[in-house]
Hints:
Layout lengths: L2 E4 H6 L1 H10 L4 E4 L5 E4 L2 H12 L5 H12 L13 H5 L3
Parallel strand pairs: 1-2
Antiparallel strand pairs: 2-3
Helix pairs in contact: 3-4
Amino acid sequence: MTLALTQSDFRAHIKKYLDQVNDDDEVVYVARSNSRSVAVLSQDKLYWMEKALQAKEDSLDYAVARDQLIQRHVLPDDPIVESNDDYWGQFK
């Protein structure tokens, strides 16, 4: 679940929100008074996002980063593929 907060609320309850970012892998959006906003996310989530963006799409690094992002609900899970003759025939 993503949280959207005011800067005042974030400041008043910073420990609570930072714990949610780290413990529950939440993303917190903070609206600032100057009509700008910031996002607070865990270092792990940012690391895997950067890894996925920097890796070649068909590499092992990309596959691992993509799997980590799926586990963190950043990316949707892969659809289930029916295992029939047409599916296996593509590998011949």
